[in-house]
Design a protein that fits this description.
Blueprint: H1 36-39, H2 54-60, E1 63-78, E2 84-98, H3 99-103, E3 108-118, H4 122-127, E4 141-153, E5 158-165, H5 189-194, E6 206-213, E7 219-227, E8 257-267, E9 288-302, E10 318-334, E11 343-352, E12 360-371, E13 381-391, E14 415-428, E15 431-441, E16 460-470
Antiparallel strand pairs: 1-2, 1-16, 2-3, 3-4, 4-5, 5-6, 6-7, 7-8, 8-9, 9-10, 10-11, 11-12, 12-13, 13-14, 14-15, 15-16
Length: 471
C-alpha cells in the first residue's frame, strides 16, 4: 500500500535561519551589568551578547553568525491514534560573509546554515494529520540546510542568488501566518504532499538560481528554477536519510526542474528613514502585502488514484508535469496610533493544484492577529488561525476489488480542518515563549484508526509550548 499520510509529516515551514545582522557595539559587555535583570534588557539582542568582542571582531572582517534553539512539547488530550506527549527541538547555526567588508567586492553575500533536528515526530506517532502540528518536525539528523551566494545589482533593486536554497524562506510566505506553529502556516500542505519529497523546503533545500527585481518601492518580482527532488528517490520513496542527503549534501538532478515565480505588491509601504534629527515620517495608511505566484514541475507524477489503498501498491498511471497556483494577503486593518505598537492584522492564503495528479488539490489558511494585546507587552502577539486541506476526489476513484479487501474498513478521504490559537510572548529580544492550542476535525481527511477497528481517527485537541532562544 502506498503511503497516504507520511509525506508531509517531515516537512515544516516556519523555521527561519538565525539572524546574521551586523554585530552589536563593541561596548556591549559579555555579561551585562545588573545581573539577571540585565539579560532581559530590551537593548540586548542575543543571550551571549558580543561573545567577548568576538562578534565585533569578526564583523569588522565581514563575518556574522547566528545561533538559535527551538524546543517544544506537544500532547493531545483527545483523539488521534493514541493520547500522549513528546518533546522535540531544533538548533540552527548560520554564518554569513559580506564580500565588501571581507575583500572589497561590493554587493556580495555568502550564507551557510546548518540544522540539528532532534526528538520524535509527534504528528506521525500520535495524530496522523495532513497539517502537521509543528513546523520544525522532521527526521532527526545533523545536516546542511542552505549554502548560497547572493549578488546585488542596480543599487540593491536587483539581486541573484545561486546555490542550495530552501524555498519556504522567500516564496509563498505570509508574515501573519508565520507567527503560528502548525506546518501549513509556513510551507503549505499542497506542495508538502504533491512535490517530490515535499519540495525544497525545511529541512530540505535544492540547488538552483533565484532572481529578485524591485522595479518600484511597492512591486517586487521573484523567480527561480531549482532541482525538484531534494531527497533524490522515487516519488513514493522520499526518505530524508538516504545516502548523502541525510547530511544535506545530495545533488540528484535527474528527476526534473521546478520553476517558481511570485509577484509581491506592498500597499502603503513604510516610508524611507527620516534624516538624522528629524521626526519619523508617519505611514500613509494601513500597510499590507499582496502576493500571487505559481510553480511548474517538469517531472512525471503518479495519477492521484495511486494513493488509494485499493490501488494495492500500484501506480495506476503517470502524468507529465505538475503545477500549482497560490495567493497571499497580509493586511493591517486597525492601528489606533501610527507610531504605537498596537494593531490588528489579518491574513489569508489559498493554494490550488490539479486534482488528477495530486493527493491534495486545495488548501487554505486564514487568521487574525492582535499585536501588543496587553499593557506593557508591546512585543507580544495573540492570534487565531484556521487551516483546511482537501483530499482530491480522484484518490477515492478506485473501488475495492478482490478478497484482500473484504471486511477491511477503509473510509473515503475528504478534508481536514484545523483551528490554532497561540500567544507569542517576548520576554527579551533573544527569548520568546509561545503556548499553543490546536484542534482538528477529520484528522487525515478521515483516516481509519488502526487501534480501534471500524472507526476513523477521532477529532483531536492538543496543547503545546515552544521556547526560542537566540544566542
Amino acid at each position: 500500500m502506498l503511503p497516504q499520510v507520511a509525506r508531509a509529516q517531515a516537512i515544516g515551514g516556519q523555521p527561519q535561519p538565525p539572524e546574521v545582522t551586523p554585530p552589536p557595539a563593541a561596548t556591549e559587555p559579555t555579561v551585562p551589568s545588573g545581573g539577571l535583570a540585565g539579560l532581559f534588557s530590551p537593548d540586548r539582542a542575543t543571550l551571549l551578547g558580543d561573545f567577548g568582542s568576538l562578534r565585533t571582531t569578526l564583523g569588522q572582517a565581514g563575518i556574522t553568525f547566528g545561533l538559535e534553539t527551538i524546543d517544544e512539547t506537544f500532547g493531545n488530550v483527545t483523539g488521534g491514534y493514541k493520547q500522549g506527549a513528546t518533546a522535540n527541538g531544533l538548533t540552527m547555526f548560520s554564518i554569513g560573509l559580506d564580500t565588501s567588508k571581507a575583500f572589497g567586492w561590493e554587493g556580495g553575500t555568502f550564507n551557510l546554515s546548518t540544522l540539528w533536528i532532534y526528538g520524535p515526530n509527534f504528528s506521525n506517532g500520535y495524530l496522523g494529520t495532513l497539517q502537521t502540528n509543528s513546523g520544525i518536525l522532521a527526521s532527526p539528523s545533523v545536516r546542511v540546510w542552505e549554502a548560497w551566494y547572493q549578488q546585488q545589482f542596480a543599487g540593491g533593486r536587483m539581486d541573484v542568488k545561486i546555490g542550495q536554497q530552501s524555498l519556504d524562506q522567500e516564496f509563498m510566505v505570509s508574515q501573519g501566518a508565520s507567527v503560528f506553529l502548525n506546518t501549513t502556516m509556513g510551507w503549505t500542505a499542497v506542495p508538502s504532499f504533491d512535490l517530490y519529497g515535499g519540495g525544497p523546503a525545511y529541512p530540505l533545500s535544492s540547488l538552483g538560481v533565484r532572481l529578485r527585481a524591485e522595479p518600484t518601492d511597492a512591486l517586487t518580482i521573484l523567480a527561480g528554477v531549482f532541482d525538484d527532488n531534494p531527497p533524490g528517490g522515487s516519488f513514493f520513496n522520499d526518505s530524508q536519510l538516504r545516502g548523502p542527503e541525510r547530511y544535506g549534501l545530495g545533488l540528484d538532478l535527474g528527476t526534473g526542474a521546478l520553476f517558481i515565480a511570485e509577484a509581491q505588491y506592498a500597499v502603503n509601504p513604510p516610508p524611507p528613514p527620516a534624516p538624522a534629527g528629524s521626526p519619523p515620517t508617519p505611514p500613509s495608511g494601513l500597510p499590507g502585502m499582496y502576493k500571487a505566484g505559481a510553480w511548474f514541475d517538469t517531472a512525471k507524477f503518479p495519477d492521484a488514484s495511486s494513493y488509494s489503498p485499493y490501488a494495492d501498491g500500484r501506480v495506476t498511471s503517470y502524468h507529465w508535469h505538475n503545477y500549482g497556483l497560490y495567493a497571499v494577503a497580509d493586511q493591517t486593518v486597525w492601528m489606533p496610533r501610527p507610531d504605537g505598537p498596537t494593531s490588528v492584522s489579518v491574513f489569508g492564503r489559498p493554494v490550488f493544484a490539479p486534482s488528477d495528479r495530486n493527493f491534495l488539490d486545495f488548501c487554505a489558511v486564514a487568521g487574525v492577529l492582535l499585536h501588543a494585546p496587553l499593557p506593557t507587552r508591546d512585543n507580544d502577539t495573540f492570534g487565531v488561525a484556521f487551516g483546511y486541506a482537501n483530499v482530491s476526489d480522484r484518490v477515492n476513484s478506485i473501488a475495492p476489488t478482490g478478497p484482500a479487501f473484504s471486511g477491511v474498513y477503509t473510509p473515503l478521504r475528504s478534508g481536514e480542518t484545523l483551528i490554532e490559537v497561540t500567544y507569542q510572548a517576548q520576554f527579551a529580544p533573544w527569548l520568546t515563549v509561545q503556548p499553543d492550542f490546536q484542534y482538528y476535525w477529520m484528522p487525515g481527511g478521515g483516516i481509519a484508526n488502526p487501534n480501534v477497528p471500524n472507526t476513523r481517527v477521532s477529532n483531536e485537541a492538543l496543547f503545546g509550548i515552544r521556547t526560542t532562544i537566540q544566542f
